[in-house]
Amino acid sequence: MGKGQSKIKNGGTGKTKTSKGKKNKDENSNNNSLTNSPNTSTGNLSVATTASTTTTVTSEQQTAQNKSQQELNANNNGNNSNPSTNNTTPANTSTGNLSAQTTEQQSNINNIDNLLNSNGATEASTSPDSLGIGNGDDNEDEGPEEIIFSKNKQSATKDDFELLTVIGKGSFGKVMQVKKKGEDKIFAMKVLRKDAIIARKQVNHTKSEKTILQSISHPFIVNLHYAFQTKDKLYMVLDFVNGGELFFHLKREGRFSEPRVKIYAAEIVSALDHLHRQDIVYRDLKPENILLDSEGHICITDFGLSKKIETNDGTFTFCGTPEYLAPEVLNGHGHGCAVDWWSLGTLLYEMLTGLPPFYSQNVSMMYQKILNGELKIPTYISPEAKSLLEGLLTREVDKRLGSKGGAEVKKHPWFKNIDWEKLDRKEVEVHFKPKVKSGTDISQIDPLFTQERPMDSLVETSALGDAMGKDNNFEGFTYVADSILKD
Fold first, then answer.
1. pLDDT tens per residue across span 290-347
2. DSSP state of 451
3. H or E element: which one contains 387?
4. Which one is catalytic: 129, 195, 232, 284?
5. Which of 70, 126, 153, 328 has the lowest tally of Cβ within 10 angstroms?
6. Which residue spans adopt a coiled-coil conformation according to this UniProt entry (predicted)?
């Protein structure tokens, strides 16, 4: 699966954006060329786990490290020598300069800054699905644990899997490459500590992530195969996707060619359309949460911020990654699936140019730019791609491309040569194939993780304390995919 897509809330949940790979986005960026090291992340999940953590709003310090040098080099990146990169053309989506910011918007920005600087574990700023151990218990010996089954009694247990390699870590647990005993198929096992989840009030988010994953099946979305639990931990067994994070490849290459971006974009559009048709909003689209499989197709991971919208009013939770937040989220308005189309526009802009459209090292300034800044699109981007970006990065939700459904995005002229049925069968030729020898290759995973001894460490009985209460907070967590039952 992919490296650690990590996000955190400042001082509360465990994963911070700086602890993942994004902080390294500026390293060696004078020539926008990295060494052959597959992943420079030092913190969370490795480049190979779809079980990566979700990003929540991060602090200014965390974001400032992300792209500082890239901001200086965004228009003459790596393998792109187009002399026109420094020329930009204003788009039509600007709503005015920063001085025109309303009092309400400034108040919201101030509230967000206060939230980022608080130490409490709040829903708005915590990562619902953080991984990794974080408590130094990796050296404890394994031991027997009671297995808790859901009512249907159909379950795998941790003893059914051989632990192969650590591929990611965060504050709630870790991710390991595993093999089902007696079979050849490789999976990624996401292991979460209940005490950490309960202490940070992420029970509902964690259960929601599992519920959403088990309800969807799509060629460009990670599959959940098993879920089970012991008295101390939760386990989710997912696809092992080993081509590396899109973030890693983008960081190494600076920016991608437009034909290559178009294929990635089309596969993402197909996946988002599938989610939205089920009233599921993803809310954390970014390069860190998109993995490449061994053939070069994308795989969306990390559903910790996803939510099924039950009402027409949308949802009001303030969550996401700063660079990709939609204006309606910053304004504190109820939001729905349209936020994913804004994030897609931001992601496409970043893939085409090297930086998000409204990026600033100063998080407050970046929020102001998202709300009011002028969208400038380099002249080397084709008119069709420019039109798509302008449509997706429209601040008025009702006028935003995609607000009426994914079908209108698919019909955009930029995608006119895409055969969507062929695309979903993975029959469309990709422009880049990761250098992996097989589906089990771990060469794209940070050695920081893979050098660790793979083990499922014990949690002291006292660690849970009274947190569990009299009831099982995770009743019904056990799951076996239909595809597994049919085998």
1. 999 999 999 999 898 899 987 666 677 777 889 999 999 888 877 889 999 999 999 9
2. T
3. helix 383-392
4. 284
5. 153
6. none
